[in-house]
Amino acid sequence: MTTQVPQPAPTPDDLPANGSRLRDRGLPRALVVLLGAAAVVVVVAGIQAVAWLIGPAFMALIIVIAVAPVQGRLQRRGWPAWATTLVLVVLVYAVLVVLALGIIVSIARLATEVPKYAAQADGLVSGLTAKLAQLGVGPEQLRQAASSLDIGKLAGLLGSLLDSVAGLASNLVFLLALLLFLTVEAGGVRHRLASIAADRPRIIGALDHFAWGTRQYLLVTTVFGLIVAVLDTIALALMGIPLAFTWGLLAFITNYIPNIGFVIGVIPPALLGLFVGGPGLAVAVVVVYCVLNFVVQSLIQPRFIGDAVGLSVTVTFVALFFWAWLLGPLGAILAIPLTLLVKALLVDIDPKARWADALLRSTPKEADQVAADEAEKAARKAARKAERAERRGHRHPQPAVAGGPASAEPPAPPDPPVPPERTDPRVTP
């Protein structure tokens, strides 16, 4: 009689992936890919249908993530829980109020100031169409071009961009309540994540990386965007461009739009410069914007912090248009945090999806490999420096110095201690 040896239960890593199970049951790979693509289409369509809810909700989450470290620092200094929560709520609402007030003032000034330059814009368009007519352009094409070059459309476009951010207050009760609940529960997130980490450590690692990357991105973008916005506002005010504060605020907001935010921010003040002072002033505005952005974002910013998010330029460019199409202008502003969240949920938590991480990250190698390569380069450089120093020492040996370490005699033994004087009057010398 033989006894069967019990076999250990298979672990989740030993089980085949979902795609492998489907292929084992007879489904071809092409059908699996099509089913996955269909699921993606359904999810994307659902997100687009509720974009009015997802955009503000994710914006509230980003604001809470950005100011959450303040609560942890206050707790480490001994502040009570209610006080840290109150400080966090005040910070969150202060960020929202300052942003809303700046945008409302800018929209109001934009609506009252831009129509004043409609006559200059019409005259400029008329002169341009006359020159094009002299070059042989047909009248029908000229009428279409003249109708498309309308300053009112430009004002409407800028108003929609600013209004999309101000639209966070369109459902004010929902947004304030969501911010309040997220802020109050921010103190217990660490304990919740610790409970999840016992069973799913990769999920916690991915979410921690998402939060860290989001804070790094917001820190870098906010600090240097604020610097660029202040410099742009001062430069525009000195050149006499109307609505300098509005264009500075627009430059700050468009700084969160990767790749093309600078282009969006420079077009309106350049056009106003064209209407006010002619082509020379417009060119001056473009040159000043290019110089300031190049110096701050290309020379100064990389010296403080390198790549803050770890995404390639191509990925950020494609993500910008995708999220702008899916969620509107607010999606363009939140493109980087949204991409980091999707990467954390679909790539970072799955060990079998490292091939996707290789395509998304900014460097061809992983961070550990890059650090190892840098350490190896530093070690080789130090070894070469030591070898050159040793060669110079062999070529030019230093003579022995009299009294130096080579000819030094052993030190003499110390003198015996001198007994103290006896001061007792009863004892005579």
UniProtKB/TrEMBL annotation:
Keyword Secreted: no
Presence of the UniProt keyword Transmembrane helix in the record: yes
Compartment(s) where it occurs, according to its Swiss-Prot or TrEMBL record: Membrane
Main location: membrane
Protein name per its UniProtKB record: PurR-regulated permease PerM
Residue ranges, compositional bias (Pro residues): 408-420
Transmembrane segments: 30-47, 53-70, 82-108, 165-184, 217-250, 270-292, 330-347
Classification of source organism: Bacteria, Bacillati, Actinomycetota, Actinomycetes, Pseudonocardiales
Keyword terms, alphabetized: Membrane, Transmembrane, Transmembrane helix
Its membrane topology: Multi-pass membrane protein
Pfam families registered for this protein in UniProt: AI-2E_transport (PF01594)
InterPro entries documented for this protein: AI-2E-like
Family: Belongs to the autoinducer-2 exporter (AI-2E) (TC 2.A.86) family.
